[in-house]
UniProtKB/TrEMBL annotation:
Pfam families reported for this sequence: Ferritin
Gene3D superfamilies to which the protein is assigned, alphabetical: 1.20.1260.10
Protein name, per record: Starvation-inducible DNA-binding protein
The keyword Glycoprotein is annotated on this UniProt entry: no
Organism: Ilumatobacter fluminis
């Protein structure tokens, strides 16, 4: 009978130090993404005004996409052998996205979501030096997909402010 308290070492061609650095960066992407998910869901519930239906539906699409994304990001962290953050406290410590302390109007919601989408994009983009150094194609692919989503969503939201 094997001792299940011992774990096998990870040998995927990425050094332990690089795996830890990749996971730390992905943890920030995860925290930003989850914080943006909460903000977007909050706005979905609380938006009012002439753009209600459009924004209510748009925000729902965005938070549903983010809900899937946080799972993919967390699973990549786990595949690298590190624990994924998963508490509000951890997310608050890691995220560069500010929580709201007020109830913004619809236009301000859109503006803040642009800022949030762009923040996640910058956090994801900041990881490419370590991703390239570690030759980590799965993380590069994940981050590239996330950048495409966040940059497109920021553009669409920003267009509503013109």
């Amino acid at each position: 009978m094997s001792d299940t308290s011992q774990t096998m070492s990870i040998d995927i061609g990425i050094s332990d130090a690089d795996r830890k650095e990749l996971a730390a960066g992905l943890s920030k992407v995860l925290a930003d993404s989850y914080t943006l998910y909460l903000k977007t869901h909050n706005y979905h519930w609380n938006v009012v005004g002439p753009m209600f239906n459009t924004l209510h539906l748009m925000f729902e699409e965005q938070y549903n996409e983010l809900a899937l994304a946080v799972d993919q990001i967390a699973e990549r962290i786990r595949a690298l052998g590190e624990p994924a953050p998963g508490t509000y406290r951890e997310f608050a410590e890691l995220s560069a996205i500010e929580e709201d302390t007020d109830r913004p109007d619809a236009t301000e919601m859109i503006r803040r979501l642009v800022v949030g989408q762009e923040t996640v994009a910058r956090t994801a983009r900041s990881m490419f030096d370590v991703v390239e150094r570690a030759d980590d194609q799965p993380t590069a692919d994940l981050l590239t997909q996330r950048l495409q989503v966040h940059e497109k969503t920021a553009w669409m939201l920003r267009s509503m402010l013109a």
